[in-house]
Amino acid sequence: MDYSKTVHLPKTSFPMKADLPKREPLLLEFWQKNKIYEKMVNKRMGKQKFILHDGPPYANGHIHMGHALNKILKDMIVKYKSLTNFYSPYVPGWDCHGLPIEHQLMKKLGKNKHTVDRVEFRKKAADFALDFVEIQKKEFKRLAIFGDWEKPYLTLTPPYEGVILKTFRELLAKGFIYRDKKPVLWCATCETALAEAEVEYEEKESPAIYVKFRVNLHCPDSKFSNIPINSFYIVIWTTTPWTLPANIGLMLHPKLEYEVVHIKTRGEYWLLAKNLLQNILENKLKLNSKDYEVVGCFTGEYFKAWNYNRIFPEVGNERVSKVILSEEVSSEEGTGIVHIAPGHGDVDYIQGHRLNHLPILSPVDDSGKFSEEVNHPELKGCFVLKEGNQKILEILGQSGNNSLVFQETIRHSYPHCWRCKKPVIFRATHQWFLSVKKEDLRGKMLKEIENVNWIPAYGKNRIRGMVEQRPDWCLSRQRLWGTPIPILYCKQCKNPLLEDQAIGMIEEVIGLEGSDSWFKEGANHFLQTEFECEKCQGKEFAQEHDILDVWFDSGVSHEAVLKGDETTFNGKSWKEELSWPADLYLEGSDQHRGWFQTSLIPSVALTGTAPYKSVLTHGFIVDGQGKKMSKSVGNVIAPEDILKDYGADILRLWVASSDYREDIRLSKDILKGVAENYRKIRNSFRYMLGNLAEFNVEKELLPDSQLLEIDRWALMRFALAIEASKKAYESYEFHRVVVSLVEFCAVDGSSFYFDILKDRLYTYGKNSIERKSAQTALYRILSSLLPLFSPILSFTCEEVWQLGLVERLWLEESVFLTSFPENHPQWLDKELDKKWAVILKVREQANLSLEAARREGLIGSSLESKLIFLGGNELENKILREMEKELPMIFIVSQVEMNEKSGELAFQVKKADGAKCGRCWRYDSSVKEEGVYPGICSRCSEALNRDYALGNGIRQKI
Known about the structure:
Shape: elongated
CATH class of the largest domain: Alpha Beta
Number of strands: 32
Number of helices: 30
CATH architecture of the largest domain: 3-Layer(aba) Sandwich
Structural class: alpha/beta
Distance between the termini: 7 Å
Radius of gyration: 38 Å
Strand order of the largest sheet: 11-9-10-7-6-15
CATH superfamily of the largest domain: HUPs
Strand content: 15-25%
Largest sheet: 6 strands, mixed
Helix content: 25-40%
């Protein structure tokens, strides 16, 4: 007889093959059509808020893996918080202004800022940015990122620009903003000032030269009267030869010892730091001790205000300049003497100009070339970092000059423009700045940093160190695409109009019309009343042409969004729906010097408080060998490639499986490993879903007290996994979530519990207590495992949920409309855990014995065997005696015989007694070839009788 139709095999349409690239878009359509995100948020209306404020990516291209990593991490947190009953709406945003977008569009148009019409270009830039907002929006949604996608925040909208100008006005009114001429980081390629956050440090080769400046022949001290006129020199070291035309001072350390040394081979006297002298003379110039003689030793203080002759006196009006003193001078490299060019360095500016009133010289134009001011025919028009440097070296080495002592090439870390990747320079220009010294803003920021929860903890030291060292923020940019600086200048005297009322009027107009009006209309368009210049009483004004740093745009996002008047999908304003300060900012670790700082500065200046309670950072994506991904190397993996080959859930599982706090490795082999883990999870879902087919939750779910011991053990193990994963979610350690849940599915589940459960689920009576106990356990596990995994495997969990919904296993429309499972202390049983730990250890030994018998050809399937327990320790013997009836099920054998003789854990394997049951495949002596159910065991006969008595038509099935 064929008993196959009487076995209760799993039934499910959930396929073993995931085919995620085809299946996921259907689920995405389901979420969008049924507004699942909106329902998820609204379900928690009135609950405690948790607001993750989105740092806006640039709308200038397709998303890359860094975007995917960042948005998936944010999405997992928002979903986790929503499923734990927080009101957690997520408003995504985009940075729509700035050099990244301008640079891309210029490249596309084949133009530069000098060859385009400003108004027309800005229109194209807006279209360009908005096009990529839509492209990226679609790409983020494809990754299962939930959010208010129809109402994101965009930094180019008039209301947002109004908030930018409002913040600028308030900072100006409080005295934080000022205009000055001083050196700033300057990109000659992009022709604009840059902030510290807009430079990246890369290795670069530079000329390192030793140069001598002749002490003025009117030497101020009789001690040096025996030194011949024109023979006394001060020697400096620099890696920026191009700044020498702007030299206006030499700086010594007041307490450092300096020696005057007679260079006999040259007939010259040089001043050098004592501790560096030997390295320069013997290692660099290859002199021996007979070639020079020290004739005097003095501290730097001795040389204060000494005069020397400039090498390039044609720049500026001073042929002679002076020595100044500062403890900023290093005694670790060079000569211990620094050449000072206040127009080309921050320290130079502070020490030379601000403290010692030296003039600012900067004979370099916007394109990084020597300007007319250099007043030298060989230098004018030379790009300073290339031919400019070379020409300087040639001039210094000429016989009539003879200032070059020694030259070499070094590799060092040098600032490069973040956008064009070219080296930058320091250059003095008129710019608008935000002071971090005003009202001890720096000190207040440092205090607020202490009040923020930084994850990982080392982030606090990182940003603290940066804030301690940061200069004033250069706010102005000499570009086209951005929010204008709302300043008018008197046409007669060029004095800026800084009245709060006037700037407020500009803010109001741009907040309604948008910033393009600033470049289309005249000044009077923005002023409702007449103003006059406080300096010359002029009444005609012209607009500032510079725009604001794009980092200022995003730096006020907490003000524009968390306190904003724009509306959400609910029709309520952002300030009603969201909360300030944000509960969490989450970005890459590079934002310690970027968005985290640029948000902190205006917030602390205006409110005294940081705009965030916690800040979480992730590392960068590298290849399988830990190397930076690069198109030229060919090791870049794009999100679209992973979506095409694997699907979004594999990408999400990779993110969750990684310790993202450090740099994260990604390769094809790594993805294969992630896909294998996914397969284990999917198979667990399929097993449980299939075995819950036709399970009536309302009628057949058993109370815990009626469950079999092994089912209670499974729930206990799952309860531990729930606790571990929830704890890991709370600390944003998603890799620990994955470890705990995959370990439960693969180790506790597939390798043991699910395996031994098959006999009970397939062959026991359909409505037997044994089968219902197993199904109850599986239901409790699956119905909780899906919400637990859904922030990570959003598509797959929804797919399972929808199939379970058809089976009426649950009633919620989506897995995201349910909640995380509660902890189940009633399932935890330490004694049960200890007992089953012993059983599992014994089972491992039993499996080894069975495998050995299989290799010897004694058995094929483990069901062909009778396992004889030869003994173990006292505890093992005791537990196995208690569990004797369940041991065949636990070991998946037909019989287990207890024959304790040995004190060591050991088994003997024999052929099972009896015949093979044609239904359950166990060997049993009750199998007979005659009777009502010939060829099956008594246990299966009983199951068939029970099913037949319940009217399940077993005879007809047979």
